Amino acid sequence: MHFRTQIPILKSISPVDYNSKIVSLGSCFAVNMAEKLDYFKFRNSCNPFGILFHPLAIEKLLDFAVSGKQFTANNVFFHNERWHCFDVHSDLSNPNKEELVAALNSIIINTRKDLEQASHLIITYGTSWVYRDIETNQIVANCHKIPQKQFEKELLSIETIQKSIENTIDLIEKVNPKCSIIFTVSPVRHIKDGFVENQWSKANLISALHQTFDLRLSTISYFPSYEIMMDELRDYRFYAEDMLHPNQVAIDYIWKRFQETTISETAMTTMEEVGNIQKSLSHKPFNPKSESHLKFETKLREKITILENQYSFMKF
């Protein structure tokens, strides 16, 4: 007897290995997966503009990077003693206006380079709900805790999202037509929008993605993060204390499914070696000066040296 259903996931035709260069963009769940890639020492760049929740925000910054557009003083504003940009996360906000603009333009240049070299791009959409700045009539990526009366809240239609996805794919193909793009929908529940509204939002994302897949199947694929959380892990014990975000058990499980289907079998041995080294590095000895621990450290350094010689990009 089986007491749960497991979602069938096709194995990737372009799996990730240690020759891959990965760029991850999107919601906070993108960060969860990127942390796993970092832990196992894959080459991975995650959210250079901070966490981005909706498709239009991701598309806009990719357009800046691909088209070589520049941020100017007109793109930033002062609020609560810091300069902010509506197109990026508040993590990048700065008390100095010129430093913020310079930092944003530097990120644009580096993102273009990362996209040109990427073998895989992972995009995680979080929501279809967006906020439009009433003064400029522009949809923002982040409200930066500005009073809500300055914005109008609206739900992106399936058609709008689909067009944004197609634009995003076109932008990537302009600079890197061989890049494999993996789309996924974040399992994080946006209950502040409302219970029904959260499901509506996710449904629009999923519908738009699959309508796009019907038209373009060459270098894009879908990983069902949201579906795994909703179906395989349908229990509150898999949520963090806020009952909105997946807890570590859920993140580990979704990563396991990702590993099984999207990472090359040839990388598994190296992943195991890296994992053993990471566990050893976190080991806290009872007696750091004991002979046994000194031998342990010597063997550990030898293992690290072997891997770092084999993969020059790895640093422990």
TrEMBL record:
Highest taxon above the source species: Bacteria
Protein name in the entry: GSCFA domain-containing protein
Species per Swiss-Prot/TrEMBL record: Flavobacterium fryxellicola
Sequence ranges assigned to domain GSCFA in this UniProt record: 21-258
